[in-house]
Amino acid sequence: MTLSLHTLREWDSTDPLASFRDEFDLPDGLIYLNGNSLGALPKAAKQRAQQVIEQEWGQGLIRSWNTADWVNQPRRLGQKITPLIGAKAEEVVVADSTSVNLFKVVAAALALQQKKGRHEIITEPGNFPTDRYILQGLCQSLAGDPVLTTLPATEITDRISEQTAVVVLTHVHYKSGQMHDMKAITRKAHEQGALVVWDLSHSTGAVPVDLNGADADFAVGCGYKYLNGGPGAPAFIYVAERFHGKVEQPLSGWFGHSAPFAMLDDYEAVGDIRQMLTGTPSVVANSLLEVGLDIYGRVDMQQLREKSVRLTDAFIELVEQSCADRGFTLASPKDSKVRGSQVSLTHPQGYAIVQALIDQGVIGDYRAPDILRFGFAPLYVRFEDIWLAVETLKNVMDKELWRDERFQKQQAVT
Amino acid sequence: MTLSLHTLREWDSTDPLASFRDEFDLPDGLIYLNGNSLGALPKAAKQRAQQVIEQEWGQGLIRSWNTADWVNQPRRLGQKITPLIGAKAEEVVVADSTSVNLFKVVAAALALQQKKGRHEIITEPGNFPTDRYILQGLCQSLAGDPVLTTLPATEITDRISEQTAVVVLTHVHYKSGQMHDMKAITRKAHEQGALVVWDLSHSTGAVPVDLNGADADFAVGCGYKYLNGGPGAPAFIYVAERFHGKVEQPLSGWFGHSAPFAMLDDYEAVGDIRQMLTGTPSVVANSLLEVGLDIYGRVDMQQLREKSVRLTDAFIELVEQSCADRGFTLASPKDSKVRGSQVSLTHPQGYAIVQALIDQGVIGDYRAPDILRFGFAPLYVRFEDIWLAVETLKNVMDKELWRDERFQKQQAVT
CA–CA separation, B204 vs B172, rounded Å? Predict the structure, then answer.
């Protein structure tokens, strides 16, 4: 039985999350399948921007650190993230970029483990590039001779030894959408005395995450993908409560001090999650992220996951229906249980096809060397959109629109 | 001869920078002497925020990395800072917070020097606290056993030895407003083989800085003070061209990669100033900062310095005229040649006096243990404001308004 536009429209009409789409500003006629790279604009962000810029900054000026409670933004926003990732209210803080935060938590985990003679950091090949780059920089610069080992994910838990300090993995792979079994990997790592740092950038707000349930140690994640915090939005850090007051992190700035406004000469870390803060937080950026988080405050994550699975299943099925024999290969798991909210295809002409799709009003993205990547943000992607996206893809292939010379030259795409 | 309100109003009427005040939104009736802590809101920031949020993010979505040139923001903004600090167009980039950036440049300088057997970092007591905290965290975490030595500024250049890797100083002191002789200190450090990192947070946009003229090595600075970039605005980094392609910094994220969008497994630093970038930049925050920088593009820095000296001189003179025998001591240099654009006074009741002043509509700030700090942002502070501020201070002291119990309890003030 084939999947019809009629069926997909029926699914939209009974979708319990359908009304969330109205809370986002989306360009007319555009099908946006790139919320895994940059989330859409919540309508409420416009008013919030006006308020924080014109009232809190313009009129309140320096007083707003207290009167508008800017000083507690990092912790308040962190608390709003905790239900999405299965953390306790005081285990998450918002700060800096994912890259900077990864440096902090891996260094913190490493310092704990180096005391036990463990110096090895393990990650997988093809992990999100900036994570790998940060680990490389960290190994070159930090004391104690940390060593970076790269192993296929399937081999990692078997290769953990008494040398292994930390395993660093991205929960949902940025390219394939493959989802690791957080609980099983964490358990096996712990059995061998290793700690695990999870990058939740492609999970948070897309699939339910249960850090506490997995007994997770440390995590970081992104604010501008499914959380819809705006381009380059601040990221977040999770540190399990059992480590609070027991870790050190190298980027020990004044917002992590026990008495930041006493302006003392010597650093003394505050004993809670704020220890992971560094410099003065970006207030306007935080305020925009909070709007995205407040929407999630009303989302049932199980409903979200069900919709996400249905969206991605439907996309895969429709591509098989309409674009068979077009040279596409599914690069994501077919089994939805181990797949995030994205679907990747490979095609030798991947770059040009993605450009032709964008030209036709369907935005996905390309990842070298041959990946077409489509993200399905369940808060604003409709089932009908899936139909239209695949029809457009079929049209691009049938008419060979990708051959247009405008689509041949590779440009920077984030 | 005493300074009269009439004279100050005359100065305002002939001030070549007077019209810049109209470009800022300032609350009616408020005298804002805290632009050294958080700059005022440029009116144009409101439209720019709307544009970047509603058009670039909302409508352009992911495409704006190219179509709105988000990808080049860090370098473009850096270029706009260079005339204010005497740097070449390609020597400055905007990124992260001042604290994070200080970690990067000190680590970069240290790595160069460790190859020569130099491991000591020298700074002064009472340097901006977060700078000291970052240096402490860096010395505890980085390889090569870096050691932090704290010496009174007057002793530093004499104490530089063949062990000394880097001297880290804030150009204009956050508390006293005392300005170091950048050229002389840099020269003496270089003579001994040491490098110097300058924190320009309290200088940039307040006093002309000539990094190239001083043969400066590295610098960082703040975007939210005199540059008026908004609360927690991104900061900047200067690296002298002679070090480009020759340094390493530990926070090696994807925006510092030679081919960020190729998504390669291994880090390879780009050979220019962008190497100091780490994660995805905060686009909205950068866009607001750019508004502040564009105003400076039309400012004559010598005129700005002349006005700044006149404002601070007038303030000191009026305090002497009106508040003699009130227990105040000048905590800033009397000689304007070694003073930034701020004036600090000490008083045993400093905290309560500042609170009473704020209550009366004059915003300065308090720094423990006894400092009343007043910043004079020459773009929007009028000479008349100085008169009104000192009259208000006189009134607070004459009527002992600071004794009000509301002003006794210390709260967080940034």
Answer: 9
Backbone angles phi, psi at A40, to 5 degrees: -75, 170
Q: Which of A32, A65, A234 sits opposite B61 (nearest CB)?
A: A32
In the predicted model, what is the mean pLDDT of chain A? 96
DSSP state of A323: S
Whether B305 has a pLDDT exceeding 50, the answer reads yes
Q: What is the ipTM of this complex?
A: 0.97
User: Which chain B residues contact residue A283 at CB under 8 A?
Assistant: 230-232
Please give the Cα distance from A223 to A232 (Å, whole number): 8
pLDDT at A20: 98
A158 φ, ψ to 5°? Answer: -75, -20
Query: Residue A111: CB partners within 8 Å, gap ≥ 6?
Result: A247, A248, B141
User: Of B90, B367, B74, B363, which Cα lies nearest the Cα of B233?
Assistant: B74
Contact by Cβ (8 Å): B38, B44? no
- CB interface of B with A, residues 234-273, below 8 Å: 234-235, 248-257, 260-267
Which chain A residue is nearest to residue B233, measuring alpha carbons?
A282
> Into how many domains does chain B fold?
2
Please give the Cα distance from B36 to B26 (Å, whole number).
15
Is the pLDDT at B318 greater than 60? The verdict is: yes
State the distance between the two ends of chain B, measured CA to CA, in whole angstroms. 38
- Contact residues, chain A, for B45 at CB < 8 Å: 53
Chain A residues whose CB is inside 8 A of the B367 CB are: 263
Active site residue A145: no
Is residue A49 situated within a structural domain?
no
Of B252, B276, B296, the residue that ends a domain is B296
Catalytic hit among A75, A225, A274, A307:
A225
Q: Which is catalytic among the residues B118, B225, B339, B367? A: B225
Question: Is residue A128 domain-shared with residue A244, that is, in the same domain?
Answer: yes
| Continuous segment of H or E residues that includes residue B109 | helix B98-114
Which pTM value belongs to this model? 0.97
The domain that contains A131 carries what CATH number? 3.40.640.10
Judgement on whether residues A17 and A107 belong to the same structural domain of the protein: no
Residue among B50, B150, B278 whose CB faces A99 most closely: B278
What part of A 82-121 touches B (C-beta under 8 Å)? 96-100, 103, 107, 111
Find the mean pLDDT for residues B15-24: 98
Which chain A positions have a beta carbon within 8 Å of B175's beta carbon?
263
Domain that holds residue A227: 69-296
Last residue of a domain, one of B296, B317, B349: B296
Is the separation of the CB atoms in A263 and A124 below 8 Å? no
In the Cβ-directed half-sphere of B28, how many Cα atoms lie within 13 Å?
A: 0
Same domain, A264 and A284: yes
